[in-house]
Amino acid sequence: MKTSIVIPTLNEALILKDSLHAISNLDPHEIIVVDGGSTDATVSVAHTMASRVIKCKPGRARQMNAGAKKATGNLLLFMHADSKLTRKSFVRMGKVMTPTETAGGAFSLQIE
Questions:
Q1: Gap between the Cα atoms of 44 and 93, Å rounded
Q2: What φ, ψ does residue 68 adopt, rounded to 5°?
Q3: Residues contacting 84, CB < 8 A, separation 6+
Q4: Bridge partners of 34?
Q5: Rounded to an integer, what distance in angstroms lies between the CA atom of residue 9 and that of residue 51?
Q6: Segment 44-96, tens digit of pLDDT
Q7: Mean pLDDT throughout 33-53?
Q8: Can you give the C-alpha Rg of the chain in angstroms?
Q9: Alpha carbon distance 101, 19 (integer Å)
Q10: CA 42: distance to chain centroid?
C-alpha cells in the first residue's frame, strides 16, 4: 500500500524539520507539505525533505484538499506538523486499511 502523508502548514519552521525527519523515517510513498502562506522559513524547510511542496490559500481544509488532489498514493494520511506517529502505528494502519475501505480513522493521543 502506498501512503501519501499530507501536512498542512502555517509558520511551522521551528518544528517542521524534526517532524519531517520523523515522518520520513516511516518510509511513506510521499510526503506532501501544503503551506497556507507562511511568513517564516516553513516553505524552505519543507523543500529540504518533502516530496512535494504546495502553496495555497490558508485554511486547514483547503490545504488538506489541495494535498489530496496531488497525492499519488492509494492511502491518505493527514497529519499536523507537530504530530508524531510511531512506526508500529504506521505499519498497523497500512494493514488495517484495504483497497475496499473508503474511509477510516482512529487514534490515541498523548501530549508531551
A1: 30
A2: -60, -35
A3: 19, 22
A4: 8, 54
A5: 15
A6: 999 999 999 999 999 999 999 999 999 999 999 999 999 988 999 898 888 88
A7: 98
A8: 13
A9: 28
A10: 14
